[in-house]
Design a protein that fits this description.
Blueprint: E1 10-15, E2 21-25, E3 30-34, E4 40-45, E5 55-61, E6 64-69, E7 74-78, E8 84-88, E9 96-102, E10 107-112, E11 115-120, E12 125-131, E13 133-136, E14 142-144, E15 150-156, E16 159-164, E17 169-174, E18 180-184, E19 186-187, E20 193-194, E21 197-202, E22 208-212, E23 217-219
Parallel strand pairs: 19-20
Antiparallel strand pairs: 1-2, 2-3, 3-4, 5-6, 6-7, 7-8, 9-10, 10-11, 11-12, 13-14, 15-16, 16-17, 17-18, 21-22, 22-23
Length: 220
């Protein structure tokens, strides 16, 4: 549903340091906020004013909340109260999806077609790109995969962990130099196999947790 506390098509989720849960509901174009116990707190629109949006990913920033919008090809910036602040990425992003923040450096990672674009601060200054698709990146490494589609991203301990929907795997990049470190998983239904992975996150010990969409399961 679209009433308070109801969801129509949930996509992204983020948790603040106080335990509040922010859920992207694409069906109602809203962010719904819940307590750690699951009680409804508030909701707000995902776009700029009454502008239509196509929200996907969400991340907690020290100033507030960041939400990717594939309709306008931007990242919308909100305070945690839901107050709209601004946006960045116009003319740089094409169809943003996943988003993650490195709180130590205020670095923002956004999945966008064949690469992950790296921004600094809520004003969205483009700093770097982690390439997926047959492109030489600024650091000279070369990644040549046939049909990549980065979906969601998580960041921890100097690495960016990215789910690749088309290649049925998770790719780990070194943030500092943009180099692909390793590839986790391959297409399949057995334990360790992946089929169109979507969400990805890391636990406190660094384990990678993947929403294995095609196999309808979560793998650690």
């Amino acid at each position: 549903g679209s009433a308070e506390g109801q969801l129509k098509r949930p996509r992204g989720v983020a948790v603040t340091s106080s335990g509040q849960i922010y859920v992207v509901d694409a069906g109602s174009e809203q962010i719904q906020v819940f307590s750690p116990e699951g009680e409804f707190i508030r909701r707000f629109l995902t776009g700029r004013g009454n502008t239509r949006s196509d929200p996907w990913g969400i991340a907690v920033f020290h100033h507030g909340i960041l939400v990717t919008d594939a309709e306008e090809s931007v990242v919308n910036v909100f305070r945690k109260s839901g107050h709209y602040v601004g946006q960045f990425g116009k003319g740089i992003l094409h169809r943003p999806c996943g988003i993650a923040v490195d709180p130590k450096t205020d670095t923002i990672f956004v999945t966008d077609r064949e690469c992950v674009k790296v921004f600094r601060g809520e004003n969205g200054v483009l700093m770097n790109m982690l390439y997926f698709y047959g492109c030489a990146n600024p650091y000279g490494s070369y990644v040549d995969f046939k049909y990549p589609l980065p979906y969601h991203v998580a960041v921890d301990k100097g690495n960016a962990v990215v789910s690749d929907w088309r290649e049925h795997c998770v790719k780990v990049f070194d943030i500092e130099n943009g180099v692909l470190i390793k590839r986790i998983g391959a297409r399949g239904a057995r334990v360790g196999g992946l089929e169109h992975p979507r969400g990805v996150c890391l636990d406190r010990t660094g384990n990678v947790i993947v929403a294995d969409h095609g196999n309808k399961r979560v793998q650690l």
